[in-house]
Amino acid sequence: MGWLPTQGRLAAGLLVNLAASICIVFLNKWLYVRLGFPNLSLTLVHFAITWLGLYLCQALGAFSPKSLQPAQVLPLALSFCGFVVFTNLSLQSNTIGTYQLAKAMTTPVIVVIQSLAYGKTFPLRIKLTLVPITLGVFLNSYYDVKFSVLGMAFATLGVLVTSLYQVWVGAKQHELQVNSMQLLYYQAPMSSAMLLFIIPFFEPVFGEGGIFGPWTLSAVIMVLLSGIIAFMVNLSIYWIIGNTSPVTYNMFGHFKFCITLLGGCLLFKDPLSVNQGLGILCTLLGILAYTHFKLSEQESSKSKLVQRP
């Protein structure tokens, strides 16, 4: 997308991520509900196909791999595996409402991590946009919020590790001077290898319900299609965070959540209450406010550059 102007590249990246994310949510839902395909095993397939896709891309000259030490990528790979494991445990131990409410805390935790660890400052008006977004998520899920000690422990760990992972996705690209493809090219196989050791503790490997179980050809094709879409999702996530920020990506994630809810209502006839409708509206207003303030900041920065002698 190098031939497009900066704003055009960003819009294209967001659109790719939006379309791929919505597709993979509904496809994975079908795989879980209709086929009972194991969750962590599907994530392993996703990252294995992501690495194969990147290997093909570099073979075709789409990018040149940069030599990196495994220790430089290890924290990112570990945080990804922690994010997958703890979010799955959180989903298993909590209601959907509690899980979604905890997930909404990722954005403020990222703000705290970047402020304390990286010295990044956020204007008050940007921080205030988190209020309607969090309120919107609460309105969407409060009817299903139930707390337990174990569930809250997993939810808290999931939010912390997810926040670290997203911060490091952006920080490592700048620190190591690599682009999204170069970094993901190293992280994907490393995370896949780690998941190979983790999966047997949580899911069957062979037999009924295991990744090497007696799946039909149509099921295998759907899993592979899910992996191809996941390649687009993973690559666009790295690209968006590397070219914007983890907070901006999270804001976009809230937007995708609203679209997914509306899509579920329209496509699958999922019920949508008045409170959920208000929650979606509240979340979208917060996202619009954040977008307006960020665009204002960019215009202000451009004006200062032009005015310099």
Automatic annotation (TrEMBL):
Location in the cell: Membrane
Name of the protein this chain belongs to: Solute carrier family 35 member E3
TM segment ranges: 12-32, 44-61, 73-91, 97-117, 149-171, 183-202, 214-241
Residue span(s) of domain Sugar phosphate transporter: 19-290
Source species, domain of life: Eukaryota
Membrane topology annotation: Multi-pass membrane protein
Transmembrane found in the keyword field: yes
Predominant location: membrane
Annotated InterPro entries: Sugar_P_trans_dom, TPT_transporter
Source lineage: Eukaryota, Metazoa, Chordata, Craniata, Vertebrata
Pfam family, one: TPT
Keywords on record: Membrane, Transmembrane, Transmembrane helix
A single Gene Ontology CC term: membrane
